[in-house]
Amino acid sequence: MRRKVAILVLFIAVVLTGCGRNSEERVTRSAAADETTANMINSTNIDETSPDKIDTGVKGDDDTTEKSRILIVYFTRADNVKQDDKLDAVSSASITKNGDTIIGNMKIMADYIKETTGGEEFSIKTELSYSQDYDETTDQAKKEQQDDTRPKLISQVENMEEYDIIFLGYPNWWGTIPMPVFSFLESYDFTGKTIIPFCSHEGSGLGSGVSDIEKLCPDSVILEGLAIRGSKVNESKNDITEWIDSLGILK
Q1: Distance between CA atoms of 194 and 221, rounded to whole angstroms?
Q2: Res 22: pLDDT
Q3: Predicted local distance difference test score (pLDDT) of residue 103
Q4: Which residue ranges in the chain fall short of pLDDT 70?
């Protein structure tokens, strides 16, 4: 009898010991699993916040967003004649006298545009000069148009591919852009670029200049242009600023 009781006690002790070990093992395994999970979570958080691991697409405070580069191209008679005291700046629709300096209306407008946009300026210059006499210049311009002439240019944009937005200025000659501007537009690839016309005139506005630009640059985006009467160019700063704001090109 005593022997049976002893065997029974021993059996119960073995069972309880095994259960304790199993419970301890389960606890240990559970703790290990929790530690592994925690390590995985911590590792994931590090990767998500580490710039070396994941590109969130959001730039830091020290980064700047790249802006579109702007080029302000213009053709002006003043840069394409030999200037002297005999140059008629009163009767001209494209030349203005600023104190003792004779400058083109398009240069004035280009300066206003530069002040607003921060763009760079470029003046279209021809190999052959135009007459100092305004009437002779208009006759010459008319003949160039009738003959579909492409005047040779002596100024070039060396890095046109770097510019995204082109302001294009011209005096309205015989209802459209002067022929040197045709030469300019045919000298470069404007595919994908935005072209914004502006001009001075004496009653005919932009004329057919915009449609001619569209024909020469069919793969460009042409935005709304601005025409300022030649006699009002010096007073056009506010009009130019409002026009540029309305285009929505500045960010």
Answers
A1: 5
A2: 45
A3: 86
A4: 1-67, 83-101
Query: What distance in Å separates the CA atoms of residue 183 and residue 195, rounded to the nearest whole number?
Result: 16
For 31, 199, 238, 251, the CA distances from 117, given in Å and listed in that order, are: 64, 17, 13, 10
The separation between the first and the last C-alpha atoms of the chain, rounded to the nearest angstrom, is 99
Question: 171, 76, 175: which is closest to 130 by C-alpha?
Answer: 76
Q: Where are the domains of the chain?
A: 1-58, 70-247
- Per-residue confidence (pLDDT) for residue 175, from 0 to 100: 96
The topology (CATH level 3) of 70-247 is Rossmann fold (3.40.50)
Percentage of the chain lying above the pLDDT 70 cut: 66
**What span, in angstroms and rounded, lies between the C-alpha atoms of 130 and 80?**
6
How much is the pTM?
0.71
Q: Give the β-pairing of 226-229 and 194-201.
A: parallel
Closest Cα partner for 243 from 72, 62, 117, 85?
A: 117
DSSP characters for 92-134? -SSEEEETTEEEEHHHHHHHHHHHHH-PEEEEE-BSSPPPSSH
d(C-alpha 101, C-alpha 90), whole Å: 13
Here the tokens at position 110 are 């280009």
Q: How many residues does the chain have?
A: 251
What are the φ/ψ torsions at residue 69 (nearest 5 degrees)?
Answer: -85, 135
The residue whose two tokens read 């001619």 is 212
Number of H helices, E strands in the chain: 6, 8
**C-alpha separations of 93 from 96, 150, 229 in Å:** 8, 22, 8
Phi/psi at 75 (nearest 5 deg)? -115, 130
The 10s digit of each residue's pLDDT in 47-70 is 222 222 223 222 333 333 456 799
Which of 69, 78, 131, 136 lies closest to 102, judged by CA?
Answer: 78
